Amino acid sequence: VLQPGLHVIAPPDRFGGFVSTQLELLDLPPQIHESADYVRLKIDADVLYCIVDPKRALLRVSDLKKLIRKTATSTLAGIIRSSNLSEVAGSRKVAYGEEKVGGGQEGESKHIGAEAEPSAPSFQQKVHDEFLKELHDYMLNDLGVEVSNIRINDLRIADTELANKISKEAVKVAEQEAEYRMLQKETDILTVRANNQALEVRIKANAKADQEMILVKAKNDAHIAQTRAQAQSIEIKAKAEAEALEIMAKSKKVSTIFDAQAQADATLLKAEADKKARMMQGEGDKTYASMIESTKVGAKLAALEIQQKSLRGISKVAYIPGMPGLLKNPELAINVEAKDMGLV
């Protein structure tokens, strides 16, 4: 098996033919198969494949197309026999292995288990998925052939009478589904309207609540500001009164200090003056005494002073010179007022 390109073949080798690795379409003969619920289904399909390993494909089988055709037909028969019409309504297409869409080396590969968009409606999609699941990996690993796709050209119920009944039932179901969808749409519309009305009411309620909250907050802020202003005013007034009282106390304290200082100074000055007066009086008395002592009159003055002190409080006194002789001669006695003598 030679790769594509220019080759020279010399005897005893001989040329057997070309094997294409491009994507090929193989027609399957129309077949009628029974489903699991004994419904006869007529199917017409094509298989798209490409040879990815020419050596394995040539050495493993002599007629590759015949083998693919028989294998595909039997696989379709098994899929239909294991299925019924009610099971395949919601199937999806699944790619198995590394499926190369478009064939050849430039095909786009898909990994096993990756979901793809449906390529055929309902039951045809079910047949498509099961066919690739059963046949793809076997053909690729054993024969070197990659089955890329199966195309369902025609799939119908072979029994005409049964097909008509099912068609009528399908029409009824379609009508019911259409009515259901219409009712569902109306329900959705009513729900949306109700939601819109509820949303509108909720928005209005929220707006009213927000407005009331704003008003309450504004009132609270104004009340708080007024209270703070009053508190600040009271605080300022109390502080001013405290400062005034403090100033008055300080002034009284200073005045008291000044008065006490002045009184102390006056007392001190008076004491000093009294001291000086006493000193001066003492000096005068001392001088006077010394003067009296130095003269003859002094003794008499001293005697008179003693007499004056002894006669204080007496309103009248009789002065009798020469007491012994006067006592003997009453006619010579003289009455003298004490005040005349300077004794009172």
TrEMBL record:
<feature type="domain" description="Band 7">
    <location>
        <begin position="1"/>
        <end position="186"/>
    </location>
</feature>
<protein>
    <recommendedName>
        <fullName>Band 7 domain-containing protein</fullName>
    </recommendedName>
</protein>
<dbReference type="InterPro" id="IPR001107">
    <property type="entry name" value="Band_7"/>
</dbReference>
<feature type="region of interest" description="Disordered">
    <location>
        <begin position="98"/>
        <end position="120"/>
    </location>
</feature>
<dbReference type="Pfam" id="PF01145">
    <property type="entry name" value="Band_7"/>
</dbReference>
<dbReference type="InterPro" id="IPR036013">
    <property type="entry name" value="Band_7/SPFH_dom_sf"/>
</dbReference>
<feature type="compositionally biased region" description="Basic and acidic residues">
    <location>
        <begin position="98"/>
        <end position="114"/>
    </location>
</feature>
<dbReference type="InterPro" id="IPR050710">
    <property type="entry name" value="Band7/mec-2_domain"/>
</dbReference>
